[in-house]
Specification:
Blueprint lengths: L9 E9 L40 H13 L3 E2 L2 E2 L2 E4 L9 E4 L6 E10 L2 E14 L3 E4 L9 E4 L6 E7 L6 H17 L11 E8 L6 E6 L2 H20 L7 E6 L4 E7 L9 E2 L6 E2 L4 H6 L5 H12 L3 H7 L3 H11 L5 H18 L2 E6 L3 E6 L6 E5 H12 L5 H13 L6 H7 L7 H14 L1 H8 L3 H14 L6 H11 L2
Helix pairs in contact: 2-3, 5-6, 6-8, 7-8, 7-9, 8-9, 8-10, 12-14, 12-15, 13-14, 14-15
The structure holds adenosine-5'-triphosphate and magnesium ion (MG) (2 copies).
Pfam families: GatB_N (PF02934), GatB_Yqey (PF02637)
Protein name: Aspartyl/glutamyl-tRNA(Asn/Gln) amidotransferase subunit B
Keywords: ATP-binding, Ligase, Nucleotide-binding, Protein biosynthesis
């Protein structure tokens, strides 16, 4: 299958990622652990940009950038340096942002995603380091706001900006790219995507192979997908009415789901880039071998190994490796000699499905349990123990609990406040699988009591069989295995 891209869509992303796993900021010793702190409490003359303060580069920023570059299979510049991007705006009182201009540390990388027509490669144009400015908090909506508050806790946080080639051909591909990119960064342990403001995306998009429009500063992957869907529709409509698309910057209004023009590129500023005189150029070639040593097994490699080592399907391997903490949890479960295929089903399909359904995001794994938080309210948190999954998988493998009962156990643990082992939950809820003769008895009774349904089934109405199975489940209070019940009924009526 070859994807034709009938609307000539091209999407290129600029992704700002905070290296929020580093202990301190980029040019000063202020702690980067500010997310729960009061505004402007994690600041000093350097990150406030006060006159006379001098930056001291946090070497870990450069190391992390090189690590990212290697993971993206990019080229690392032999010599790299910083520039000043001059602009006047209250998010950076010193009047310029320290960034990299024509010497980005990383260039020419790639990321392989699941595209519209199978594997699809997205080129990485460049990735560079820069400092995060302070955060402006608009009171009310950005267009109507009467006032602005500024929090400089974020100011001076190390960022990596990654620019892709316009290689994505649909909003879905853009979202898949972002999911994959985030996953890689989390594997590298340089980034925690659950923290507020950790990843901000500018999405560039054009239709009919035309001029691009840039949508600035979108904070979620889903937001990027929605903004692009809207923007593509808007551009197509403009062209259909005989209009022209011009290079402009737009803002995505998450609430209304629309993009709004902010400025045209003619109004774009001239940033008067020049070399940052307070920071020396760096030669980093010698650092590369040691950093390469620290590269972990990356998602694609892990996925291939999982299929090979555990004999699981590609779908399961993909889902289990979509988060490093989930992959580690799964391996923790398998380490105890449980059936890896059953463990994959219960972890990837049921457990992960139930988490998504509840808007819970995986946030930690400590070797014993996997933790998760609510995506809208991080105060809501819970965890699931490796030992509980092992017990459940074994009970299921031994035929002691049915599908339905195992799902019920997982739900009970996710929703419960007190800790309980699966076997206790099963006992308390009476979920142990019914003995075979109990099921046989229920089948016989069901057939005797439901003459009409039996007749319909024998007359070819498959639906009636479902009804009969339902009756058996009811009689056994859901403890029968639905598949067994079905087989028994069919056999009886043959
Ligand atoms: N025709 C196009 N359609 C869609 N995207 C495009 C097109 N041409 C370029 N792009 C994308 O636009 C982005 C350009 O980003 P880049 O940072 O190089 O420049 P910029 O947006 O002008 O600068 P700034 O950093 O100030 O936003 C890249 O992601 C690129 O892939
Ligand atoms: Mg741009
Ligand atoms: Mg850019």
């Amino acid at each position: 299958m070859v994807y034709e891209n009938p609307d000539g869509i091209r999407i290129g992303l600029e992704i700002h990622v905070q290296l929020n796993k580093l202990k301190t900021k980029m040019f000063c010793g202020c702690s980067s652990d500010y997310h729960n702190a009061a505004p402007n409490t994690h600041t000093c003359p350097i990150c406030l940009g006060l006159p006379g303060s001098l930056p001291v580069l946090n070497k870990k920023t450069v190391e992390a950038a090189i690590k990212v570059g290697l993971a993206l299979e990019g080229e690392i510049a032999e010599e790299t340096q910083f520039h000043r991007k001059n602009y006047f705006y209250p998010d950076l009182p010193k009047g310029f942002q320290v960034t990299q201009y024509d010497f980005p540390i990383v260039s020419k990388g790639k990321v392989v995603i699941e595209g519209e027509d199978g594997e699809h490669t997205v080129g990485i144009t460049r990735a560079h380091m820069e400092e995060d400015p302070g955060k402006l908090v608009h009171i009310g909506s950005i267009e109507k706001s009467k006032g602005v508050l500024i929090d400089y806790n974020r100011s001076g946080m190390p960022l990596i900006e990654t620019v892709t080639e316009p290689d994505m051909r649909s909003p879905k591909e853009a979202r898949r790219f972002l999911d994959k990119f985030r996953n890689i960064l989390e594997y590298l342990d340089v980034f925690d995507g659950n923290l507020e403001g950790a990843m901000r995306v500018d999405a560039n998009v054009s239709v009919h192979w035309g001029t691009r429009v840039e949508i600035k500063n979108i904070s979620s992957h889903k937001g990027v997908e929605r903004a692009l869907l809207y923007e593509i529709m808007r551009q197509k409509n403009v062209i259909r009415r005989g209009g022209k698309i011009t290079l402009e910057t737009r803002h995505f209004d998450e609430g209304r789901g629309v993009t709004i023009s902010m400025r045209t590129k003619e109004e774009a500023e001239d940033y008067r880039y020049f070399r940052e005189p307070d920071l020396m150029p760096m030669r980093v070639t010698d650092w590369i071998p040691a950093i390469r040593e620290t590269l972990p097994e990356l998602p694609d490699a892990k996925r291939a190994r999982f299929m090979e080592q555990y004999g699981i399907t590609d779908m399961h391997a993909k889902s289990l490796t979509s988060k490093i903490m989930l992959a580690d949890f799964y391996e923790g479960v398998c380490a105890e000699g449980v059936d890896p295929k059953i463990a994959a089903t219960w972890t990837a399909d049921v457990f992960l499905g139930e988490l998504n359904y509840r808007d819970l995001a995986i946030s930690s794994y400590d070797g014993k349990k996997i933790g998760f938080i609510h995506t809208k309210d991080p105060e809501i948190e819970n965890s699931f123990k490796v030992s509980d999954m092992i017990e459940l998988v074994n009970l299921f493998a031994e035929g002691k609990v049915s599908d339905r009962a195992a799902v019920e156990v997982i739900r009970t643990i996710l929703d419960g406040k007190e800790e309980k082992a699966p076997s206790r939950i099963i006992e308390e809820k009476g979920l142990f699988k019914a003995e075979d003769d109990l099921v046989t008895k229920a089948v016989a009774e069901t057939i005797a009591e439901n003459e009409a349904a039996v007749k319909d089934y024998l007359g070819g109405a498959e639906k009636s069989l479902n009804f009969l199975v339902g009756q058996v489940m009811k009689k056994t209070k859901g403890t029968a295995d639905a598949k067994t019940a079905r087989e028994l009924i069919v056999k009886e009526l043959m």
